[in-house]
Specification:
The chain is mainly alpha-helical. It has one domain. The relative contact order is 0.15.
């Protein structure tokens, strides 16, 4: 799954969990949590050999990590871990993951395809549901109102952009031409643009608030 789907589904699942547990998982963390397993792309770029979809996509690695987070941070750790583990679920739906690495290299998953109709529905549908959920739970106010917390959306924005560029570079992909080469990829690319636009609006609101406070307004 692309980072669009990972971001949106981690937001939906982790934010809904935090509300049920009556804790406040920050908006930027909810969007960020589902992208963390793809941080192996950073390591792959730095170390020079394939690491993507290996240990950070194994339940034997993320499972104990999630339990540790839940033990250390209690309800917040549980909500964060739900977002983190959503990455494995969504990747397994459209593709496959090495669920028991390092014990076994066998990959499991439904393999519905990426990009495919199923993947496109999950990616774009995840964004649509996330937007609706943000409207009803009030999270949209962090994008539409002056709010210093909006500055923190620079973190998921940087992550989505940098991971996308690094993955394209590592695989010798011409990002612009591929992004709009098929209907499915065009829809998914448009979803990424909308998501990044949301983050940018929140950041601008944060900058606006910071500027006003510095000038005593």
């Amino acid at each position: 799954m692309f980072l669009l789907g990972h971001s949106c589904w981690s937001y939906l699942l982790s934010r809904a969990t935090s509300r049920q547990l009556k804790v406040d998982l920050p908006l930027y963390v909810a969007f960020l949590s589902g992208t963390l397993p793809d941080f192996d792309i950073y390591s792959q770029t730095l170390m020079g050999y394939p690491m993507h979809h290996t240990y950070t996509h194994s339940l034997l690695v993320l499972g104990p990590l999630s339990l540790g987070l839940a033990y250390r941070f209690h309800q917040l750790g549980v909500a964060f871990s739900i977002g983190l583990l959503s990455h494995l679920l969504t990747d397994a739906i459209v593709g496959s993951i090495p669920l028991l690495l390092p014990i076994s290299t066998t990959e499991v998953g439904l393999g519905l395809g990426i990009p495919s109709l199923s993947d496109t529905v999950l990616e774009v549908g995840g964004l649509a549901v996330a937007l609706i959920y943000m409207f009803f739970n009030g999270d949209w106010k962090q994008l539409s109102h002056s709010n210093r917390e909006g500055l923190k959306l620079s973190v998921p924005l940087f992550v989505v952009v940098s991971l996308t560029l690094l993955f394209a570079g590592d695989n010798n992909l011409h990002l612009i031409s591929i992004a709009f080469s098929r209907k499915a990829l065009t829809a998914i690319s448009a979803g990424h643009i909308i998501l990044l636009g949301m983050f940018a609006i929140g950041i601008l609101q944060g900058l606006r608030t910071t500027h006003r406070k510095r000038h005593g307004q």
